[in-house]
UniProtKB/TrEMBL annotation:
Name this protein carries in UniProt: Lipid II isoglutaminyl synthase (glutamine-hydrolyzing) subunit GatD
Quaternary structure annotation from Swiss-Prot or TrEMBL: Forms a heterodimer with MurT.
Keywords: Cell shape, Cell wall biogenesis/degradation, Glutamine amidotransferase, Hydrolase, Ligase, Peptidoglycan synthesis
InterPro entries named in the record: Class_I_gatase-like (IPR029062), CobQ_GATase1 (IPR033949), GATase_3 (IPR011698), Lipid_II_synth_GatD (IPR043702)
EC number, UniProt record: 6.3.5.13, 3.5.1.2
MF terms (GO), sorted A to Z: carbon-nitrogen ligase activity on lipid II; glutaminase activity
Example GO biological process: cobalamin biosynthetic process
Length: 301
């Protein structure tokens, strides 16, 4: 079994050690006897999205985002087709923002995004910095997203609208985050059960540092629901996004070593797209699970 992981723009988008996400995915493949093949692609490099299983785009400063955007736009059609066909994508912060319609900098310049996700970002005066804990949004986790927006309406740069509605019928009920259905759903999706933290871990932890406030349009689901920190915009309690097999988040850290359940979900989705139904359980990742739980306790103390 082989999973090909592409690190896009590793020389430009690699803030706060985001390359650690690549290392975590490759390690979690090797612990299972899966060949995790890492390839790097940057400005002008040929890249066929049909031959990769997971695309990773890290975070970067406004300057780096504006440097690479034309190169990224040239890849838009193939990437859009690959996403609709199930390509797994993880975008962190700037890499997340670039999947949307645009990123408006503090100086008012609009850096166009790929427009693949119905979201947009407007920089604010104050940077949103600090530790983050987000409860997993059951509507976006461990099952095909319902597509029913958990964030009703659309937020906007003035911050109006976009309030999270939870409870029955919105596909987003906080109550179930801590319940087993979330874990059971995740377990069903990864097939690796508790061994990979799914079913035990019902939060995402990380570190954020961004000026952009991201607003999700209709049809998009936040990946998490903020318990500590700012998240997408510091207003609607959403953190990140999930659309099909695309995951966007503001969480640096790097994200995946502290969130093994998300790492395994990405691997499971990548294998499923290749017709492999179950991700083999990892023998023992209690260390990663304990690290996640210790971080949650520390952030909340
Ligand atoms: N430049 C973007 C912002 O400040 C993204 C920053 C990042 O990737 N950490 O919002």
């Amino acid at each position: 079994m082989k999973i090909t992981i592409c690190h896009l723009y590793p020389d430009l988008l690699d803030l706060y050690g985001d390359r650690g996400n690549i290392l975590a995915l490759a390690a979690r493949c090797s612990w299972r006897g899966i060949e995790g093949l890492v390839q790097r692609s940057s400005l002008g490099d040929p890249l066929d999205f049909r031959h990769i299983d997971i695309l990773f785009i890290g975070g970067g400063s406004d300057r780096e985002q504006s440097i690479l955007v034309n190169d990224l736009k040239r890849r838009e059609t193939e990437l859009r087709e690959a996403i609709e066909e199930g390509l797994v994508v993880l975008g962190i912060c700037g890499g997340y923002q670039l999947l949307g319609q645009y990123y408006q900098t503090g100086g008012g310049d609009k850096i166009p995004g790929l427009g693949i996700l119905n979201l947009w970002t407007v920089a604010g005066r104050e940077r949103l910095i600090g530790n983050v804990i987000a409860d997993l949004n059951p509507a976006a986790w461990g099952q095909e997203p319902t597509g029913e927006a958990a964030v009703r309406g659309t937020g906007n740069s003035e911050g109006r609208g976009g309030g999270l509605q939870t409870g029955p019928g919105t596909g987003c009920s906080l109550g179930s985050v801590a319940g087993t259905d979330n874990g059971a759903a995740a377990k069903a999706e990864t097939g690796s059960g508790a061994a990979s933290g799914s079913g035990i871990l019902t939060t995402l932890v990380g570190f954020e540092n961004h000026s952009g406030r991201t607003y999700l349009g209709e049809g998009l689901l936040p990946l998490g629901l903020i318990r500590h920190g700012y998240g997408n915009n510091g207003q609607d309690q959403g953190e990140g996004v999930r659309y099909r097999n695309v995951f966007g988040t503001y969480l640096h850290g790097p994200l995946l070593p502290k969130n093994p359940h998300l790492a395994d979900l990405l691997l499971a989705l990548a294998l499923r797209r290749r017709g492999v139904a179950v991700l083999p359980a990892v023998l023992d990742d209690r260390l990663e699970i304990r690290a996640h739980q210790a971080v949650v306790r520390r952030f909340l103390s």
